[in-house]
């Protein structure tokens, strides 16, 4: 078993760390995230994206003209690990960089790539993803938003919900129905929709965790007109492209999920001595057992993720990746619950430098969203049962 990276990968890591040390945004800059910025993306995020693009560190696995340096999968892996350890966001528009830009590179026209994909990569634009609807959440194929061709334009009507970043995005990667008579997995198309188009209304959804600066929004579309040239790929071929779009998101989602668990585990270990001092001897024994158990689970998550990644790199099937998102997100939720529980009233305290306004309690509340986004745990269980275990439908 190989328990270390090769010399070339470590040299790549060292090169990136040196660049990051000289170029990373300050803590003060990163405290100003888009959701807090009155409906726009703060200047530092666009400047940071452009700096990474110009240096080839935005998407290392891509060629230089797309903001990369033709890095291999292992090099991309250590790059993402080091960003997480440095607590520096790769982007504040993950859906734009992680889903929309690569989808446009795969399926868009030259004009769409230059205007929209390159705009995202250069930090000039931000994007949101128009998928979920009131009656089409986990079942994307049930979407009802209509785009009717009228000459050289689409006329769009419908509603999207839970749209991350819509309050500050420049355009939406919109999934809509263009053939209502086709089976539900067909007749879907993707249209690029500038959000300043007449007839578009973005209404923020107030959240329990961040009521003053929500990131999620409803998007209402009333006789919205966009040119047919904004169609991405082929008409009525959106379902196939949806699979490709989400594949970009899922290819590294296991890593991000595991790194979230590891960060929470590291914080628990850092605060554990003070926490334990406030407990009775009996409580200390139980709390120590919880901490050790979660530490073991965290190491298991990392090992399982690496195993799946190794299979992925070799071009084989990686069933571990289907397990990882659910496993890591639910582990993160339980870790947050137990951490807040053992800290008692101290879970409401906010330490210096924390962005959270409710301390560990807010962190715990936030973990519920991770079991829903990028595929809910319930849907993931169905996928594992049907596609990996080949169990019959109940």
Task: Give a written overview of the molecule.
By secondary structure, the chain is of the alpha+beta class. The protein contains twelve helices and eight strands. It has helices at residues 7-23, 27-30, 43-55, 73-85, 94-107, 110-121, 238-250, 253-277, 281-313, 319-343, 359-370, 377-388; strands spanning 127-130, 146-150, 153-164, 171-177, 188-194, 200-204, 216-227, 231-232. The strands form two sheets. It has a four-stranded mixed β-sheet, covered by helices on one side. Strands 2-3-7-6 form a four-stranded antiparallel β-sheet, with no helix packed on it. Strand 2 (146-150) and strand 3 form a beta hairpin. The longest helix has 33 residues, at 281-313. 34% of the residues are buried.
Radius of gyration: 22 Å
- N- to C-terminal separation? 40 Å
Q: Identify the CATH homologous superfamily of the largest domain.
A: Butyryl-CoA Dehydrogenase, subunit A, domain 3
Structural class: alpha+beta
Mean pLDDT: 85
Oligomer: single chain
Number of domains: 3
Enumerate the strands of the largest sheet in spatial order, edge to edge or round the barrel: 1-4-5-8
Q: Major β-sheet, in short? A: 4 strands, mixed
CATH level 3 topology of the largest domain: Butyryl-CoA Dehydrogenase, subunit A, domain 3
CATH architecture of the largest domain: Up-down Bundle
H and E order: HHHHHHEEEEEEEEHHHHHH
Number of helical runs? 12
Relative helix content: 40-55%
What is the strand tally?
Answer: 8
What fraction strand?
5-15%
Tell me, briefly, the overall form. Answer: globular
